[in-house]
Design goal:
mainly alpha, 2 domains, 2 strands, about 10% strand, elongated
């Protein structure tokens, strides 16, 4: 490998590492609503409170709110006539 190709490889690895670091920094300290829950009951409660849907469905060993994946409906803005 030439010195030039080593520099290019190092720049590529550095760019990938920077993307991972920035992605982590963007989410650090945020307290949003979780998308996965350890029990079906917790996911069903979150479905009603936060996702405007009912039910829950399994994802691996955890549970996701809403009876089907992508089943949440956007909340209506307050004061909306819709």
């Amino acid at each position: 490998m030439t010195m030039s190709s080593l520099k290019i490889a190092a720049m590529g690895i550095g760019a990938i590492a920077a993307q991972f670091l920035l992605a982590g920094a963007c989410n650090a300290g945020q307290k949003g609503v979780p998308a996965l829950y350890p029990t079906k009951a917790e996911a069903e409660t979150a479905a009603k409170l936060h996702f405007n849907c009912t039910g829950a469905h399994p994802i691996g060993t955890q549970w996701m709110p809403c009876a089907t994946h992508g089943g949440s409906q956007p909340s209506k803005p307050s004061g909306s006539q819709q």
